[in-house]
Amino acid sequence: MSTKKYNVGIIGYGWAATAHIDAINKTSQAQVTAIYSSRPLDSAALSAKHGGQIKAYQSVEALLADPDIHVVDITSYPSQHCAQAVAAAKAKKHIILEKPMANSLAEVMQIFEAAEKNGVKGCVCFELRFSGQMLSTQAIIDQGLLGEIHYGEVDYYHGIGPWYGQYRWNIGKKDGGSALLTAGCHALDGLLMCMPGEVDSVMSLSTKSKSAYFTPYEYDTSAVTIVKFKNGAVGKCAAIVDCLQPYYYRTHLMGSHGSLLDNKLHSEKLKSDKTKWSTLSMKMCDSGDVNDHPYQSQFEAFFEALAQGQDMPLTSFRDGLRTFKVIFAADQSAANGGQPVKVA
Ligand SMILES: NC(=O)c1ccc[n+]([C@@H]2O[C@H](COP(=O)([O-])OP(=O)(O)OC[C@H]3O[C@@H](n4cnc5c(N)ncnc54)[C@H](O)[C@@H]3O)[C@@H](O)[C@H]2O)c1
Predict the structure, then answer these.
(1) Number of structural domains the chain divides into
(2) Which residue is closest in CA terms to ligand 1's atom 24?
């Protein structure tokens, strides 16, 4: 028997689930001991594949009733996240929740309130906050090399066409939601990480590629959002899931002492030559695949926070709620042809 502290039950058994299982089992604090799937799974085969003792459940209720499970990890279709997360909170399980938290602000609020009411902690899978690129970016900001940031762009370019596993459900409004919800949320979240001021309002416009690959989508697959901060700063986020190009997670931040473009820096504080960028060695977010995404360090931070009885750093439910409030306001603006929408 493992002596690791936390037992994790996974809900949903697709691509994200298998990446989570590896990452959780690699931590020193937790192991996966149960998996729920609507498809019949065999406990012995799961245990042989992933290591340890994994019990297969065919009902969420039965998994949640297992008193040995401390944490539930929800990797199902987005339209199932709310009901499953609320049920997990009521069963007093801590929650790891894949993005998007849910497909409406009302549902995200239900999840947040259920967790608060039942005294359980949450981790939203905005794992890019734990990526080398974003940790280095944050360190550059914290060192004051950019000064006060007055304008920032964080953009997400990733063509999610028939070649990509999620396409089968991502094309539908019910689970895909919008370009921002389904994938661009990582970039909007990155923008809010770099620019932590309070958001006043957003305006957003959306459109769609003419390529036949993207015709089945029930929603606009390109969106650009302008974020107005209460301190006067401005941000921009492009969420493009219908492009034909390599994956690109783009950051461009401008402040009173310098600029950072992805891994290229100029800072007056370093007295470097403004006519040329200085290139920094950073581990870049350069693929939509989970394998270069830092789930392990994110989950380690979550389990560490659980042990301390605290909210986790960077990606707690409160952090997720802040980002999704902006996303739903942006989608409302796009639906109204770009009218500004106040963020409550
Ligand atoms: N944070 C990230 O970077 C990231 C990356 C990928 C996915 N996700 C999120 O994770 C969640 C799941 O996405 P995914 O990529 O694992 O999608 P997926 O299509 O692999 O799995 C989604 C759901 O479909 C089920 N499923 C998979 N194959 C099936 C089959 N053959 N028959 C019946 N059901 C099947 C799975 O059990 C799961 O419930 C979504 O919310 C998605 O947005 C997040």
Answers:
(1) 2
(2) 14
